[in-house]
Amino acid sequence: MQWANRLVRDAEGLDPHILQKADFYVRQIANAIAPSNFVLTNPELLRETLTSKAENLVRGMQMLAEDIQAGHGSLQIRQSDSKMFEVGRNLALTPGKVVFENELMQLIQYAPSTATVLKRPILIVPPWINKFYILDLTPEKSFIKWCVDQGLTVFVISWVNPDTKLAKKSFEDYMRDGTLAALDVIEKATGERQVNAIGYCVGGTLLATTLAYMASKHDERITSATFFAAQVDFTYAGDLKVFVDEEQVSAREREMSERGYLEGKKMATAFNLLRSNDLIWPYVINNYLKGKEPAPFDLLYWNSDATRMPAANHSFYLRNCYLENLLTKGDMVIGGKKLKLKSVKVPVYNLATREDHIAPAKSVLLGSKFFGGPVRFVLAGSGHIAGVVNPPSKMKYQYWTGPRPTSAGLDTWLKKAKEHPGSWWPDWFEWIQAQDRTEVPAREPGGGKLVPIEDAPGSYVKVRD
User: Which of 299, 320, 352, 400 is deepest in the core (most CB within 10 A)?
Assistant: First the structure.
């Protein structure tokens, strides 16, 4: 494998995208043929197989058959004991109400836990390729609960798990019927036009797009924007670009045209391949060779709870962002408007995570320079999930603060940055307070003007792929 790695690394005259693909797949092969993945070359597995007279392999093959059946013919590796978790029973428990719904989303408003709250509500725009409850896993890990406990009025979008009927729902539809519709509802429920918005991952890309569109319409309802591990420029989008070229995007579009959506497990498999030594091969060994059920782990249960993506929306996202990188070029067109990120003048809190394999820190940092207003760039320890979902009580990891970044790169920025122990959440809350410290009496969901539809976390989030 060292020979293969050198062959790729030293290749000359090849297209950079071809080189990136070759390097990625050589790494996948190396991970797959590691000695630990085979009974005869893994001493622990060999001992267990001999001691149990291969009963571990019999159990493992039964689990393998079950996982293929669960994947309807494709292998769907279980990463957690799914029987131990249920959304609304021991996940996504922060009290609240669904105060609005349409075809694309339910809007949840959380019940207050303080007597007074900051005047400006918070709107969270999560990714639609995963479910929002990554920010409300358990009470101890919940970013949403922590925000409520700090005295914030929190609203979150819970995206629908779309089916064939929603095939033509576009990126623009997600902006209009998602973010913009939520702003209308928040004003009805609270009487407030000014909102602090948060976008996570592709939800952040949507939020940035929405902000540029709103700027073109002189709509100033979002007064600050926070981005969690979100990309607006895709020059350094990392190994996910391996899956995005004209040939692959066209093939994906043909596949989606048959059903009207992309199956969630397709995207989940791509994400798992980015960290195959963490998210694939340990479970192959544990499940199929040792014959053991994986341990219950809330985060990995969420990781497997994938959602479908409407064909029109996903095609637009792949082409406009990954393939052509139009947003930061000023060439993305939404609602007949060419969008300019430089016209976004609101204060921005731009969070990257140092070991991110989905939105690389280098990519998030570069995106900072395209906004037209003040940007606070913060780098958190760990990766795309653990770096974001890092409650202060755990005192895990660290974060760095420093000057507004330039295109000089992450290493240059880090030389001038200051390291802080623990979670970045309190730093962000201080930044939110600095935008406007005005407090008002706490607000109940719906504010007496909207009739709640059902209890949080709502029904949309419970629809499985």
Answer: 352
pLDDT one-digit tens code per residue, 365-418: 999 999 999 999 999 999 999 999 999 998 899 999 999 887 768 999 999 999
Residue 4 has pLDDT above 50, yes or no: no
Architecture (CATH level 2) of domain 96-234+309-462: 3-Layer(aba) Sandwich (3.40)
Domain ranges of the chain: 2-85+241-248+274-296, 96-234+309-462
Give 40-78 as a DSSP string: GG-HHHHHHHHHTTTHHHHHHHHHHHHHHHHTTTS----
- Would residue 201 show up in a list of annotated catalytic residues for this protein? yes
Tokens describing residue 323: 């393939």
